[in-house]
Amino acid sequence: MSNSFGNIFRLTSFGESHGPGVGGVIDGFPAGIEVDLDFIQSELNRRRPGQSKLTTPRKESDKVEFLSGIFEGRSTGCPIGFLVQNANQHSTDYDNIRNVYRPSHADYTYTQKYGLRDHRGGGRSSARETIARCVAGALAKLALKQLGISITAYTSQVGNIALPHDYKAYDLTLTESNDVRCPDAEIAEKMATLISEVKAEGDTIGGIISCIIRGCPVGLGEPAFGKLHAALGNAMLSINAVKGFEYGMGFSGVSMRGSEQNDVFYNTEQGVQTRTNRSGGIQGGISNGEDIYFRVAFKPVATLLQEQETVTIDGASTTLKARGRHDACVLPRAVPIIESMAAMTILDYYLLNKATRL
Amino acid sequence: MSNSFGNIFRLTSFGESHGPGVGGVIDGFPAGIEVDLDFIQSELNRRRPGQSKLTTPRKESDKVEFLSGIFEGRSTGCPIGFLVQNANQHSTDYDNIRNVYRPSHADYTYTQKYGLRDHRGGGRSSARETIARCVAGALAKLALKQLGISITAYTSQVGNIALPHDYKAYDLTLTESNDVRCPDAEIAEKMATLISEVKAEGDTIGGIISCIIRGCPVGLGEPAFGKLHAALGNAMLSINAVKGFEYGMGFSGVSMRGSEQNDVFYNTEQGVQTRTNRSGGIQGGISNGEDIYFRVAFKPVATLLQEQETVTIDGASTTLKARGRHDACVLPRAVPIIESMAAMTILDYYLLNKATRL
Amino acid sequence: MSNSFGNIFRLTSFGESHGPGVGGVIDGFPAGIEVDLDFIQSELNRRRPGQSKLTTPRKESDKVEFLSGIFEGRSTGCPIGFLVQNANQHSTDYDNIRNVYRPSHADYTYTQKYGLRDHRGGGRSSARETIARCVAGALAKLALKQLGISITAYTSQVGNIALPHDYKAYDLTLTESNDVRCPDAEIAEKMATLISEVKAEGDTIGGIISCIIRGCPVGLGEPAFGKLHAALGNAMLSINAVKGFEYGMGFSGVSMRGSEQNDVFYNTEQGVQTRTNRSGGIQGGISNGEDIYFRVAFKPVATLLQEQETVTIDGASTTLKARGRHDACVLPRAVPIIESMAAMTILDYYLLNKATRL
Amino acid sequence: MSNSFGNIFRLTSFGESHGPGVGGVIDGFPAGIEVDLDFIQSELNRRRPGQSKLTTPRKESDKVEFLSGIFEGRSTGCPIGFLVQNANQHSTDYDNIRNVYRPSHADYTYTQKYGLRDHRGGGRSSARETIARCVAGALAKLALKQLGISITAYTSQVGNIALPHDYKAYDLTLTESNDVRCPDAEIAEKMATLISEVKAEGDTIGGIISCIIRGCPVGLGEPAFGKLHAALGNAMLSINAVKGFEYGMGFSGVSMRGSEQNDVFYNTEQGVQTRTNRSGGIQGGISNGEDIYFRVAFKPVATLLQEQETVTIDGASTTLKARGRHDACVLPRAVPIIESMAAMTILDYYLLNKATRL
Fold first, then answer.
1. Which chains touch A (3 or more CB pairs under 8 A)?
2. Taking the complete model, does pTM exceed 0.95, yes or no?
3. Is CATH 3.30.1360.120 correct for A4-353?
4. Out of A107, A298, A304, whose CB is closest to B259?
């Protein structure tokens, strides 16, 4: 069950980095939606390696083939199978880790859990697994667009270089105008410089991605164990290298008083709204119609082009220095993945909410 | 489905604060476990209101009655039904909110989603719902104890008063020695003073609870969408007032280099271990045998004994000042809830992991 | 998970025959439905032992107490907990089976699976477990009534005394006019006589219940693994003593030609209909708007008031003759259980179907 | 969710008859199992059209490509993606049904449910969807073989030509020795003749498949809603054209007395066994170690090479005579599908049962 995500709208994914390909099955996508293939491919391209000098130089075309569920340009309500073939594999780059556990990778835990592992490129634990998420997320975005719901993420921190303000201070349409995917060009430049420096040292760096969901109707989210923010948190924490999730005021709100943090209601022509939105658009686990916003913490990539101590699968001490082509910072490429997981979650909860009343 | 938690070991809960009671059904609890009823009641007592001068003065005895699934002191493998009757209800305390939305509560979103709500005491959104979690969590702890797994949470921050060190610096057996449930007596005293001050002002305050899982075997957790930390995050974010979750280095790790954060492996007589544990005991979504630790952020309680602006269900402007008996800080009583959700998650993933090989 | 039934509308049940009681939690019941408590109790009364001279003389009042999810007479969308207390227990009637396996009962398999069992009255395998189904089914019927969907079952065969025609030949409002719940008074009388004869011999007898669902809209059912008839079959086969399920022409249709069995379409003022309904109201797993009908086979009750060979839990040969008060034929009391499982299934699939389009 | 089957071992399938292909994702297959690709292909070949003169003359090679989850010949515990490309498509054969509903097909219900349908070859409702089941079933068989569990199905009735005895009277290794897959060569010949006659008339015929599961350990099955026979019934009823399921004595047992049907226990050197097995190897929903056997009823294929009345999607009256290449009787090709669904169910319940005790 661990390779499926969602309740009504559900992605089941498969694939390793060095097998034939990565793909999945999308079940529960509403019938009758126009499927814009160019948009879906453009979303995949935002995640693709080799898209800029900041990312790994691996060239992967990542062309998605749809195998079912679409007829004459529209979704049929039947499951949508898809495949992105692997290409440009350098499996021999990984011969040196066949019998060695890379520090802070999944090599050790997979081997212990399953009794064996596909070591090439990290196998199933490879970030290549997120391709399936981007395809499903792009489809979800197409459905959400019809509902007037939009989702935008951006890099808000790399290392200790952080945007000083919250999302309302920025023009988020600028996010795609630089390689870091940060809406402030000046700070983006500093982030890019930091990433280049870290890369030159064979080291890596983490950061934070912020995400905004606009236009979400009131009522999405299921108490008690299906709270909308718990679903979003679960979605984000399922992405490789994510170590934390907060929404609304998050960790910074713990030192505030209730009188400082509460969002009072007032009436408008559009209905009840809140004067502030410290809650982050969700109250009691249910969306309240305000913007939903959250932040996701990424640790630095574990693969270093530096010598590290480790052990072999037989327990002997050794050292390891990665070969191959790796990202020094995953944030720029992770932005569309965050958006995809958010889109899948919101569509799923939109569909669930339809069952609230007869 | 939103009132069920877990895959194999699963709690389904019910109940509002002012109806007959709160309870649930626990399915998938392994057969043959000795059920220590005194232990379970003692866990419920840790959550009970009125246990100290820091908590709401509501006196609730919260006695659990088991209705099935236990025979001659042992679990039978059949579902365990249980009920905690409500008592000491002051439903008229809530008459004033029948037609008014309390700021930052679930009143508005429930009414919009369902078309009606039980306003008394917050209805289903009441913190009283967590009673069921504590019962199920206590049972899970009994099973985990047989496996050598222990779970300990403590208050690590209230407002801006925080423990300066991580869990290894404290004797966690001292956690229960003070009303705040903080293992450092001196800092606990400061926290208690802050809570009292805030309470005197009719205000509220948030904080952070830290939690440690010791003795967890290697191999728990299911990639890709069933990562152990995603399950823990989902569990914690399902608790009322939680706004954030981080594990391992969490948000503070985003500004570290990979070379600073990686945990290198070395061999010991007990098998492979890591020299450091910045990963927080989970790698690639699977437990690696080291201590699992995480932190959970709570916002200040929304119910204030202060006048606040709001609207009625008809949209008219009004003000509201809560009556009744409320916590100024939920952290002390939330410690056993955090532990319970963690225990339920770990037991569930322990059972799931048994299916990894034939 | 095995004690939960349904996807969106879901019953989770608990309880043994000789513990404190039997009950459950109903999740996903739509908000705003008027809850007619008298109707629910009347449904429970149809299942109650001691209701006629044909059933076990055990007197059980089976009063249902609702514990949550209902406010001022309407469902709130929150989980509905309920409890039916056990009473009139003669636990000592079962002392003789504590260490003996009753033939064709669940005693042996439970003991082997779980390592222990609650032997009193069959424990969890008792037919008393179906109380929870009748409560949930009665609620489902209340929702379905708003949608114009009705469900009616009746006893169509006891032993080899069978109704000669299908449901359209009978006035099903007569079903409740006799103890057997058969709409043909004359045949009902014969069935009653057979049951009395069998009972006098200390023996038992099986039979068939037929069920009709009228007013079901087109479109319920989810291909490929969620076919509506597969869901109905699963529901029926989950009832104790059921050995077979067929819908439409069922087993009798296997010797027909396609040209004899196909239902051709024609147009009417009410839309497309079929001239015949050999399909049983479901095509391709999806309801087509015609009557849904199916038949359920019950084996004779396993508990005999006759001496039978068996073994003890230690493997020693022995004989066993049941004591206590038992049904010689479960059919009359099973009619409301069949209806309940059907109602729960149809409501669940109605709610699922709402997610088919945006 | 409707395109997924199973709890722990789970197939999610996709694909239409006239799109790029049919495939799926298998999640929860135990790690470390040797994957015999030739065996899997041989199972697919048993289902393939064109394998004998009795089946449709469509030539489909149905070669399965595995896309993930297998490394160096063994399962890794990661999801197994697979694809069988469509070939030999005659889509224009279906132009005449684009705007017409075929009687007793899914055309009408799909169109009403989804608002559109892929009419070519029946789209998702095509029997081609069962390819995915055969692949997953073959994998399940490989795992079950390690556990000493075997599954064998055979055609026991075509039209009104039926095997007179139960499975113990036949040498089931002879099942594959004739085109009908019936273990009695003489009766197989009669069945084949009947199918040919029916085919010559442009008509179709139904039948019954019987299935035996040997070597199943005691303890599989989860009361109350996860009874093993309910899971098997659900699995079988999810196959196209299935109208009924019975196990043990099934419908024929309803006219027996309890004293005739009960299976008494006795002790043997191998442990407790039953002298008879009228229960069909399952008691109280849990396997008891005896042979599990059940029967599945198939209606005649709906596609006729005869003129039939029907309506267009605009409601106009018309007639329809199928073109293309169709089976006159699906039974011979359905035998491996029945076995596959049974194998998937048993493996899933074997894995579930591992969680019964710590």
1. B, C, D
2. yes
3. no
4. A304
